[in-house]
Amino acid sequence: MAETPKLPPAIVVPGSVSNLGPGFDALSVAVQVYLRARIIEVRPSEPDTIAWEFDGAGPTGENRIESAFRLARNRVGTAAPGLRVQVSSEVPQAAGLGSSAAAAIAGLRIYEAVTAPRPVEDWLAMATELEGHPDNAAAALLGGVTVSCQREDGAVMARSSRWPEAVKLVVATPDTGLHTSHARQVLPTELPLTDAIFNLQRALLLVHALRSGRYDDLREAMKDRWHQSARTALVPGLAEAIAFDDPAILGVCLSGAGPSLVALVTDGAAKATSLLEEMYKRLGLPCTIRTLSAHQPFDS
What we know:
Order of helices and strands: EEEHEHHHEEEHHHHEEHE
Distance between the termini: 43 Å
Structural class: alpha+beta
Oligomer: single chain
């Protein structure tokens, strides 16, 4: 009797909050909401086939997990055995919490689990190709707070460090989806030099504030002139939330392309939750509010 193939451990990928205000397409932090994929059957006689079992709602459009798996198969060239894969996800779709990046990383990791390990840079490059930008993919792959850089030749660099444990993310997700592709269509193609300098200064200040513990700098450091104002019409409550002036809140920003909003706090989660709930109630929008910790770097 043929030996039953040993099943690899479950693959767990975090969601992420990208941009953090001024760090458009460059800064992101992995957060403790997860996509989990478990290979429940290996079928060596049926190479390169996958049967998916989704716990709850499956993808609303493209199955990004399978797209990433197929991309890896084509680029690496090694055939994979047939698989049956069970997927569950806490990461809401079309909400600005990195659901597509988490799915891409899951697909790449599934392929890796049944073939052979490869450098993390290879997976980051493939995920960025699928996503069109590296920030969420870097956080989903590396954990922690990540800084991403796409070189002129297209190669992607990303570096990860620990997010301060004292800083929590209060994430409010209204019951209105917003696809990243649509949210990108409203962005300007050119920026004034003054706006470029404005964001550069604050992105650097933000990184320093997180690393040094100067959380009193975060309110200024999270200001943005590149993308949030252009998306105000698409994201209910964005302008009002960014203007919250309460000592319990360190700063507010759009999470990725939205529509989720993020308030950074230390001990002010209850106050931030209350302000966001009251705002969405006035707007007549149901919302889900989560207080999340960062998912720290995988190698820490």
